[in-house]
Design brief:
Low-confidence stretches: 264-274
Order of helices and strands: HHHHHEHHHHHEHH
Strand order of the largest sheet: 1-2
Strand content: under 5%
Radius of gyration: 22 Å
Number of strands: 2
Structural class: mainly alpha
Shape: globular
Mean pLDDT: 80
Helix content: 55-70%
Distance between the termini: 27 Å
Largest sheet: 2 strands, antiparallel
């Protein structure tokens, strides 16, 4: 086992700071995407849009165009950051400079881009809503239904992230393995698992689409946010037939594992024994 050195201690501290920052940003992103919008409908607040204004009039309003333009620029900033650092030449350059902290840097920069997006996001309240549920009793029950489904989707997202090795996604496992002298944890996975992770950059596409679009009220700025992130998720999704077959085999193995008796079961994971 590798001894604890000053370098190892330093990278452990950096990885821990990155974990706290990314985890806090993720919690704030849940509030930004789900709870703030739904809570507004449940408790009642200032209107999110103006249905008395026509679309032709709203699209000539300078305040609407200015807010929508800023929101689109924020989405473009996030997409550029997220894609540029995932581009192979940039990834190799960062790996050569940052080494084992490369994944932590990617996560922290993504969290920083999300922080900028959430803090600078401009609501568009001077345009009509795309839809709004305002008729009784659905104006009470539909927000509660949205809250329940959002809660379930976020629970599923957290579960999937744990299954996909959450410490490795945040760069903590890479640092831990480096301190123990075990190398890159991804290299210990089977070639099929490595191929899947290379193609499946966002394993929670469906659940994110649900929380982005399922709302009692959809103002223009939320349409831009949901449309922009949905398009980005769709473009980044590159699963093929081999990946789907691998996922099907792994799912069947997991179901068989959980349904078998403890003494007759064997552990199945994404390591080289697959």
């Amino acid at each position: 086992m590798a001894s604890v050195t000053g370098r190892n201690l330093a990278i452990c501290i950096v990885a821990l700071i990155n974990f706290v920052f990314v985890f806090g940003t993720g919690a704030e992103f849940v509030r930004f995407i789900s709870f703030r919008a739904i809570y507004h409908n449940i408790t009642g607040g200032p209107p999110l849009c103006r249905d008395s204004v026509s679309w032709s009039e709203a699209l000539r309003d300078s305040s609407v165009l200015r807010a929508a333009g800023l929101d689109l620029a924020l989405l473009a900033l996030f997409a550029c950051q997220h894609s540029l650092l995932a581009w192979d030449p940039v990834k190799r350059a960062c790996q050569s400079v940052l080494g084992v902290l490369n994944r932590a840097f990617y996560c922290s920069s993504t969290a920083l881009a999300l922080q900028v997006l959430m803090r600078c996001w401009q609501p568009v309240t001077s345009a009509p809503c795309l839809w709004t549920v305002s008729s009784a009793p659905w104006n009470t029950w539909f927000p509660l239904l949205c809250f329940t489904l959002h809660f379930l989707c976020w629970a599923i997202i957290c579960s999937i992230l744990l299954i996909f090795d959450y410490p490795e996604l945040l760069g903590i496992k890479q640092v831990y393995y480096e301190c123990l002298g075990l190398g890159d944890p991804l290299s210990l996975k089977s070639p099929r698992a490595q191929r899947l992770f290379a193609h499946l950059r966002h394993p929670v596409c469906l659940e994110l689409c649900v929380v982005l679009w399922l709302l009692p009220t959809l103002p223009l700025d939320r349409l831009l946010l949901a449309g922009g992130l949905t398009a980005y998720l769709a473009l980044a999704h590159s699963l093929d037939k081999q990946d789907c077959q691998y996922l099907s085999i792994q799912l069947s193995s997991k179901l068989q594992l959980f349904s078998s008796l403890p003494e007759g079961s064997t552990e199945v994971n994404g390591n080289k024994q697959d």
